[in-house]
Design a protein that fits this description.
alpha+beta, six-stranded antiparallel beta sheet
Length: 450
């Protein structure tokens, strides 16, 4: 009980430290992250650095002088009078009953897997996913007839020397092999074309992974969510590196899986050292996703460097909430939008031809044009919230569009973050070869809502 509490406290302290200082991987500025570099190699380098840091920290800890009382064993030994009474030694009949029960549990497990498989099959949308599901179920099946026949023989005439634990070991071994083969089938399904495929294909990926996580926790005695999600994450990383660099949309879709399952692996960690390593990986892959989103922005421009990359946490906050906010504004009327923002603690500046709303953290702006069904969701590189001003907002910051140079706009299924300038052909924040293409995409940033 004490050990469990100690581990929890240690993990909590580690979490606080990591989130306070941004984690190891976030030590690299986002502006230096190149999504064209192999992700697998970057992760390997990141892990190596984290492990070296942990080793140095452990070395420093071991060199701290300890007092003799730190090694006290007082109270660690029980008196003989408190020793538990010896248990009766089980006989062949007891072992047989145990083995029969183990076989019953194994067969119940197989029946449950089949029932679960049938339930999941109804949810799948594509033939490829159904085929994979059937293959996984086939590999999960183990043969038990030979074990049943042996138990029938032993129930009629017990062996002189009963094979204690043989049935348990055999069932365990068969389930372990079934788990490995089934997982190989699941991994084979996770190809770049599937991960970056249609909405149906991507939904099926989630269903298959969730299904296997549930059944493998029963098949494999050593199953742990951290290992399972981590293995999937590694496969997704390989898929990312396999996609051509020019196909940024496919890469962005795959990075969503890399980060989504990486976050699940992070949540399942219960060891401080493992947590620091997994957190560093997650921070690194998140940087890759952010860099992909900024693929069309000229990151070399000094204003972009100063206003966007000086405080990366602001950009992360914007990226985390912009999509839901954008979707909400797109499907809602103006009154609904403003009422919701007001309840959420947003502050409004009523400018000449628009209302500009700012969120509670001062990281996101929503501009609503007067008498027009037009809105924008923008990133505020500087916090305009200031109680000294009448509206509680520094209107100079909101008026200086350099602090709001990025806007959220999904293009072809990819949540691009693009420049805030509308039809300014001379804007320094937009980097593309074709002027017409730039204007079309910028104009598209001002999405109409119903």
């Amino acid at each position: 009980m004490f050990l469990s509490s100690f581990k929890s406290i240690t993990l909590l302290i580690t979490c606080v430290v990591l989130f306070s200082f941004g984690g190891y991987a976030n030590g690299d500025d986002l502006k230096n992250t190149d999504p064209n570099q192999p992700l697998e190699a970057s992760i390997s380098s990141c892990i190596k650095d984290v492990q070296e840091n942990l080793w140095l920290s452990q070395l420093e800890f071991e060199q701290v002088e300890r007092k003799p009382e730190d090694y006290s064993f007082e109270g660690c030994f029980l008196r003989a009078t408190n020793a538990p009474s010896p248990r009766p030694i089980p006989g062949p009949i007891d072992h047989l009953a145990h083995d029969q029960k183990s076989l019953t549990v194994a067969r119940s497990t197989l029946a449950w897997i089949m029932q679960t498989t049938n339930t999941v099959r109804k949810k799948l949308k594509t033939d490829a996913a159904r085929k994979t599901l059937d293959s996984v179920m086939k590999e999960c099946y183990i043969e038990t007839d030979d074990i049943e026949n042996a138990l029938k023989r032993w129930s009629k005439k017990l062996p002189k020397k009963y094979p204690v634990d043989v049935v348990d070991y055999e069932l365990h071994d068969r389930f372990q092999k079934a788990s490995s083969k089934a997982f190989a089938v699941l991994i084979a399904h996770m190809k770049p074309g599937i991960l970056a495929g249609t909405a149906y294909e991507q939904t099926d990926v989630e269903s298959l992974c969730g299904y296997f996580c549930v059944i493998d926790s029963v098949l494999d005695d050593f199953f742990e969510e951290r290992g399972f999600y981590g293995a999937l994450q590694r496969q997704f990383v390989k898929c990312y590196d396999a996609v051509p660099k020019v196909d940024v949309i496919a890469r962005a879709k795959i990075l969503k899986y890399v980060n989504g399952f990486g976050q699940r692996a992070l949540s399942a960690v219960d060891d401080p050292d493992d947590y620091e390593e997994q957190y560093a990986i997650f921070a690194l892959t998140s940087n890759y996703e952010m860099a992909i989103k900024l693929a069309f922005v000229n990151k070399a421009h000094p204003d972009m460097d100063h206003y966007v990359f000086s405080q990366v946490w602001r950009l992360y906050h914007f990226s985390k909430h912009a999509q839901d906010l954008f979707d909400f504004c797109k499907k809602s009327g103006r009154k609904t939008i403003e009422d919701t923002l007001k309840v959420g603690g947003w502050i409004v500046w009523k400018q000449a031809e628009q209302n500009i709303w700012v969120d509670s953290k001062g990281c996101i702006s929503v501009r609503l044009k007067n008498n027009k069904k037009i809105f924008t969701v923008g990133f505020l590189a500087e916090n305009p919230k200031n109680a000294k001003y009448k509206e509680g907002l520094d209107t100079y910051i909101l008026g200086d569009r350099r602090t709001e140079m990025l806007k959220y706009r999904p293009i072809q299924g990819l949540p691009f973050v693009i420049s805030g300038a509308l039809d300014d052909g001379y804007t320094p924040y937009w980097h593309t070869e074709e002027w017409d293409e730039r204007c079309d995409l910028m104009a598209g940033a001002h999405e109409k809502y119903l």
